[in-house]
Design a protein that fits this description.
The structure is a homodimer of 313-residue chains.
Chain A: E1 6-12, H1 16-28, E2 31-37, H2 41-50, E3 54-55, H3 59-63, E4 68-71, H4 78-85, E5 94-97, H5 102-112, E6 118-119, E7 122-124, E8 145-148, H6 156-171, E9 175-178, H7 181-208, H8 214-219, H9 225-231, H10 236-245, H11 247-269, H12 273-292, H13 298-305
Parallel strand pairs in A: 1-2, 1-4, 2-3, 4-5, 5-6, 8-9
Antiparallel strand pairs in A: 7-8
Helix pairs in contact in A: 4-5, 7-9, 7-11
């Protein structure tokens, strides 16, 4: 294994992502020491059992001596957490996060981050519907994209810090991309935030339908609904903060989707099968591109689902 | 293996479902002979290579002598197909389908079905985003629900036919439920039809966003969008017919979902985090029920995704 990019990393917030970073470092390297802290006693106790690394009693204790700090908390508390650890951050240390919204995250962290610290906001496009320290695993970041949104700082030490952080994530299996925060938030609004909002929306509506029993919704969920429940099972706190902090991009995108949906509804109401065919057929192109890019295991899952009870065939 | 429920089944339409029935019968029994036909030469040629059973040149040839006929065509052509085979249907034969909309399917088949044939509309809540004769596999119906919507016919031979058809599907691994057509269409509107409409809608909108490159949508699809593309990859013709034939239930359900989404949007616009938390938290209940009912393999898939590169741990 090549030399680790960091001597000592600190993880603040030991949820799915925080605990997965700790597992991944144990598995693939990247740092010689891992210390961590979570605001919840329950999470800290659990992490001490299942997450590799040293669980500390305070955030300050966890980040003391660290040359890279990962904030893995909900976006809404990033400024508060940064302020709490600011005085304990080492000279030249890297401060990064894993928040799903970058404009607000970058601004909040910058507001409390000392000048002698290299702030490099980041976002791994990886996750599952599970949350908590028990949900983490080492291979979460394998082949996933990791977006870094570096500040407009041109100094050489900063460029070197970005370089080291990129190498760290690549070591964990990620493909690293850099872009500015606004572009990130616009892209993620359509590829992640809105899909989650719609999933929460449909599951929640189904929950309230008088004309359909919940039992039926569950029983017949294989028709498509089930996939929405998987998305909608994601951490509510995290997603609340995502929507509150990426409000403009989400609402703008929602407007576009709503406009297009109105057209589909109209086609249904007026029995315009041609329009429906056109719209439905286009979807396969994007699907194929995702499969070709190796960004979905559906092919493999599909294969796994095939049981051949007739081996000689 | 117990005696097959049918001597000779005929499959009209050799897509994912039609070919899967043929594979399942070869694997688990249920009929001694399987004949099939598809309107497409290309599909018939392909089926002759990959689907177990006899591929015929005409629908009439395929159903002649069959004591159970499965119509696996898009819902839109059920009446036409039923009329085409009507004179060739054997006395006391069972005629069923696999259409995702039952009121229209039942009415269309009934309009052309001879009196001496037992019409029993049906719908397997099973499928993948794949289509065509190569997509079928024997285990598709394992643990999936199969809904039968029997007519209000009280005759003993009819009751016996429903009994045999149920036994056939259970032999293929399905759990069988009966309900009336309107209830089916209302339940499926929320558990299947609307989720597909929304998925097609979001994927199609993403395709048109000027502010985001298609490449970015593909790259960062793991954030949630990817699951929508999987749903939206389903057969466009089949889904066009679903929306055109279950128009009322789909538009009514869409109204409810739209109303609830407006409330979520408003909460986002006004920064009402409490409302978002409440709505997002409820979704987990339904998710848990689906997992508990063994209706999703996400747990298993999740497990499979965990690679432990450190075995001694």
């Amino acid at each position: 294994m090549t030399d680790p990019e960091f001597k000592h990393i600190a993880i603040i917030g030991i949820g799915l992502l925080g605990s997965s970073i700790a597992h991944a470092v144990k598995a693939y390297g990247g740092a010689s020491k891992v210390s961590m802290w979570d605001v919840s006693d329950k999470v800290r106790k659990c992490a001490a059992q299942v997450v590799p690394g040293q669980v500390c009693e305070t955030a300050v204790e966890a980040v003391t001596g660290a040359d890279c700090v990962f904030l893995c908390t909900p976006v809404g508390v990033l400024q508060e957490v940064t302020a709490e650890i600011a005085d304990a951050l080492a000279d030249g240390a890297v401060l990064t996060d894993v928040g799903s919204v970058k404009a607000k995250a970058a601004a909040d962290m910058a507001a409390a981050c000392p000048a002698h610290v290299h702030l490099i906001p980041g976002h791994p496009i990886a996750g599952t519907e599970k949350s908590g320290p028990e949900a983490g695993f080492a291979s979460l970041f394998q082949d996933a994209w990791h977006i870094l949104t570096p500040l407009k700082a041109e100094s050489e030490p900063y460029a070197d810090a970005v370089q080291r952080l990129s190498a760290f994530w690549m070591r964990l299996g990620a493909r690293v991309e850099t872009m500015d925060v606004d572009r990130h938030d616009r892209v993620l609004a359509i590829t992640s935030h809105l899909p989650h909002l719609i999933a929460y929306n449909i599951v929640s509506t189904a929950y309230d339908m008088e004309s359909v029993e919940k039992g039926e919704v569950v029983k017949y969920s294989a028709g498509g609904f089930r996939d929405f429940t998987r998305i909608a099972a994601s951490d509510p706190t995290m997603w609340r903060d995502v929507f509150l902090t990426n409000k403009d991009a989400v609402l703008a995108t929602r407007g576009r989707v709503s406009e297009d949906l109105a057209a589909l509804q109209r086609a249904i109401r007026w029995g315009d099968g041609e329009t429906l065919m056109q719209e439905f057929s286009r979807a396969r192109g994007i699907r194929k591109a995702i499969i070709d890019a190796g960004l979905d295991t559906a092919e493999a899952d599909f294969g796994r689902r095939q049981i051949d009870p007739d081996p000689e065939e």
